[in-house]
## 1
Amino acid sequence: VKQINLLKLRGSYGILGNDRLKINNQEQRFLYLQSFNANGNAVFGDADVQQAIAEGRLPSPDVTWETVKKLNIGFDSRLFNNKLSLNFDYFSDKRSDILGQRNLSVPALLGASLPVENLAKVNNRGFEIELGHKNNNCQTNIRNPDFVQHPEYAVHDPAEHFGNRSKDRAAILC
């Protein structure tokens, strides 16, 4: 077709995993094992003070790593002698088996905290549209990186034309 100068289809799919978890600013590893902590002191015999060891987190033998299934589909197009451009991207992230601790407590008599479990799921999806026009020496781009929540209009704005302003929403370059 004569009016289409470029049409490029893009797509990707992948499954990623994450086993890094921080609780109280401490990285948690080997969640399937019982943990022990050096905690306080104990007195033995004739006032012989030794460091005490206490049970920490209970083991979670069925725990697995967090997973995310990522899907990206899009296209780039240039039309009418490269005067009009249209780019579109759709993304979907489906996270499952998110690691966390229940917001419950166990009696202090137990002397341990609840284990880490695969508790949650989160789904994110959206799309991005970019429309551009170029005529002789002028170029205009309208871009919307997050159409649902925060529409934003941006252009390729060299610092020499607009200064160093990061809040420019739309502009024309001539």
Note: The chain has one helix and ten strands.
## 2
Amino acid sequence: PWPKYRHDAQNTGLSQYTGPDKPNVVWSRELHSSSSAIMVTTAIVGRKNSIYMAVNDMAVNDTVFKLDEDGNTVWTVGSGNFSGPMLVDDSEDIYIVGPDSRKFLRIDRMRNFTEVAKTDSPNEYFIDTNVAGRGFALLTDYDWTGGPSRLLSIGKDGITDWSFSVDEFIADLT
């Protein structure tokens, strides 16, 4: 499994498996967009070898893809403006920073959306996520020019366990 950007809670970017001596491409997938501007989140891999990624075409046609291990589409779901990053849990529920970076959403196996958390202010944005304790650590920033940041611990039930504010910009949860 590769459940999040940079693999694990320590953001090592390392797998416990040794890759092949001479790697070769097994399959590739071209993603199309109705817009010329396209951004693809880092692919994440669930426990059942399902591959998840979000395609943001900088318009309203954002899509989360679930692919099987051969690159075939299992399902897609689109709604709003996904900004990533994504996480996948052991039950294969997807967690993603959603509309305008102000909401943290769960997409369950039936493709239903649930709001897990939202920012407290219209000037506050989620900029990074990580796995922590019984749920997630979410990093927020109050303005993109380096205003105060908050680190929150939020359970899967959406309840904030704790919050810590600093008067400087924190770039990520490394």
Note: The first strand starts at residue 39 and ends at 40.
## 3
Amino acid sequence: TAIPFSTGAYLVVQLGRIAETVAGYGSSGIFLWTLTMGLCIGVGLFPVYANSILCGWLFGWLPGLLSAMTSYTLASAIGSTIARRLFGSRVDAVISAHPQARVIREALLHSNGKRALLIVTLFRLTGAPFPASTLALSTCGTPRAAFFLGTFLGLLPAVAFFLAHIPQSRLRVL
């Protein structure tokens, strides 16, 4: 948690320099930014809040919202893949060894697709740290469709509200 906090604070402090750099790439700057943030958030290097601030500052509300939500969807795919490959079998073994945990996982995540979607959406709405929540939801075997759609729906209200209150850079990035 120290790395994302430190890198996030650094990015926010460097708003002006980052805006100049992204503006230098012209119209492809938003795509490069979105891909870079998706990768960095997905591996746990940057926090979600820093990307939301910078997307609003760099691109304005609607393009910033599209960039932020696309980067979070990409980050969830990357983080989920890493978590499932590194820890999925271990977590599954622990849950399988405890009948009560197995019953709870089945009831919450596997018995009903709509229920799994609702749980992921509500979990993301809580504002739990992105890497930790991605790890928890992925390694418990959350169905991928519910995971990705729930992540998108759960993050959307807070990100949209947040971006609506971020002033845009005076540099013409888009």
Note: The longest helix spans residues 61-97.
